């Protein structure tokens, strides 16, 4: 293997020799060999990312390690070749089926992953309820809608929330896009959803708080917290979970992160994150869950563009 001196690496990367030595000393360059005061750097090593220039540096707080790792992955991905139209379409379609299956399954839909894919291709599954078919189609349409409006970088509004819910609950025309008018309880939950007359003011308050948090909170932590609090308000008679996860993805996409898919297999951990928040007031479990899913999605894209 060929190696570069600190001076040669500095010239190659257009940075100072002092900066190269600091990167070597901090272990930020892989494969470095130290001989006394000299550093030998593998010749094919790419220029390390300058972590001083990472976005959201002052907003990571107690989640600094995982959020820094995510921001580094995002910068790497943004700097690499873009996916082709065909690659993007294929990955989007695969994700949409997987996301639709898992999000609906969490709420009790009986379609399998394969059956969900078939329904989204226009097929009818024998002996499966019409409701389950309509939920799959509605969720697919809602995901396509959030992809479309994600290009609009404006603040999240209640009109968008109602529009998403209208697509999710397409099989319930009398309830879609309408805030509930009766009190409800969530079986086994530590919180009780607000009374109907408080839904609009509480949601308005949450949307305003979401805007304020943009100045001081990392996007992923802010989005995870919004998800926790939105589900606590429980504004609709049905479809709150699916709507909430779609809103979560809308906000991730708007902030340059990939959409995530909370797996049906992870539903216990997902529910426990709500319990922890409403019992102890701690959002850590949900923030870490969302962050891990974002990191996994970024890893998948990085693997594709580097092979």
From TrEMBL:
Q: Where does ATP bind?
A: 238-245, 270-271
Under the heading Gene3D superfamilies, the entry gives: Fido-like domain
Q: Where is this site: Important for autoinhibition of adenylyltransferase activity?
A: 107
Keyword set includes Nucleotide-binding: yes
UniProt-annotated catalytic positions: 234
An example Pfam family from this entry, by short name, is: Fic
Q: Per the database record, which ranges form the Fido domain?
A: 156-292
One term of GO molecular function = ATP binding
Asked whether the keyword Oxidoreductase is assigned, the reply is no
Family annotation (SUPFAM superfamilies): Fic-like
- Per UniProt, which keywords does this protein have? ATP-binding, Nucleotide-binding
PANTHER family named among the record's database cross-references: FIDO DOMAIN-CONTAINING PROTEIN, FIDO DOMAIN-CONTAINING PROTEIN DDB_G0283145
Protein name per the record = Fic/DOC family protein
